[in-house]
Automatic annotation (TrEMBL):
Organism: Luteimonas composti
Residue span, EAL domain: 23-277
Protein name: EAL domain-containing protein
Length: 282
């Protein structure tokens, strides 16, 4: 029994060793990535339906690896989270997104926000509000031009601290959005207690909106309830004209998705916004 136990232990140990080595390779690769400049951001515009105006963009991370080609964020962000490198990468994303918006501001785009995705590790670190405030000050970007996107699970993971943390962002003047709304377990009643400004309805509800009465009911209910709480509502993953019509009829504030535009390189996104004319979408 002792030998078997020991064998089990060694097997576990070996397995751990492999895991540790793999992580080291991945984080090594990811670390080099930051140095080599293999990461870049793309930007996806958001359209305010009532005004017909582009009011914001979401910054989305891309890794173009010399060795492995284009790697989707759904693959490398979980790795970056496991290795802790998401802290460095996340700060790079924040800085790069703010720098881009500052450049666009100099092209006359002042009435625009950039939304940046925040991972749980970033929110958990005690000094994240200071990091955000320092980046904004360094770049001299008005805080009102930045929105942080947090998922429900990120907030639920540390519910006690979430409210206080979020309050410090609001005091900075930064907007706060709940991402992927509807996929977690939080209710609008819970969110009511958090100082958030925007809800992003997950694309899982939008995809079948015009065919599935349940998704339609959920979407229209979320819009109505969010409005009664004074929150702004963005629908993400909007791909068709029919979806836009539904969302417009149900007073959704903003849409984001392939229907409007795919995520674009910074220069292309700037051109897209500058060429946009209200009414063009109708
Ligand atoms: P997300 O925050 O929900 O971002 C929206 C995702 O939906 C993006 O995928 C975007 O390209 C995609 N999308 C946009 N419009 C449409 C549409 O009409 N139809 C469909 N089917 N998809 C659409 P992407 O860029 O692959 O990003 C995947 C996820 O990776 C993001 O989901 C986010 O959770 C994470 N992510 C991306 N960039 C960052 C980052 O800088 N930091 C962190 N922590 N996470 C990030
Ligand atoms: Ca917005
Ligand atoms: Ca997002
Ligand atoms: Ca989302």
């Amino acid at each position: 029994a002792k030998a078997a136990g020991r064998r089990t232990f060694m097997r576990y140990d070996d397995a751990m060793d492999v895991v540790v080595r793999q992580r080291a390779t991945i984080s090594g690769a990811l670390r080099k990535v930051l140095d080599r400049g293999e990461l870049h951001l793309v930007f996806q515009p958001q359209l305010a339906l009532a005004e017909g105006r582009i009011t914001g963009v979401e910054a989305l991370l891309r890794w173009n690896s010399d060795e492995h080609g284009e790697i989707p964020p759904s693959d490398f962000i979980p790795m970056a989270e496991e290795s802790g490198l998401i802290l460095e990468i996340g700060e790079w994303v924040l800085r790069e997104a703010c720098l881009t918006l500052q450049r666009w501001r100099q092209h006359g785009l002042t009435d625009l926000t950039v939304s940046v995705n925040v991972s749980v590790l970033q929110l958990l670190r005690g000094d994240f509000p200071e990091v955000v405030s320092r980046v904004l000050a360094d770049i001299d970007l008005p805080p009102s031009m930045l929105e942080l996107e947090l998922t429900e699970s990120v907030l639920m993971a540390n519910a006690e601290h979430a409210a206080a943390k979020l309050q410090s962002f609001r005091e900075l003047g930064v907007s706060l959005a709940i991402d992927d709304f509807g996929t977690g377990y939080s209710s609008l009643a819970y969110l009511k207690r958090l100082p958030i400004t925007t809800i992003k309805i997950d694309k899982a509800f939008i995809g079948d909106l015009t065919h599935d009465p349940e998704d339609a009911a959920i979407t229209s209910t979320v819009i109505t309830m969010a409005h009664s709480l004074g929150l702004n509502v963005v629908a993400e993953g909007v791909e068709t004209e029919a979806q836009v019509r539904f969302l417009r009829d149900h007073r959704c504030d903003e849409v984001q998705g392939f229907w409007l535009s795919r995520p674009l390189e910074a220069h292309a996104c700037l051109a897209f916004i500058r060429n946009w004319r209200p009414g063009r979408e109708q």
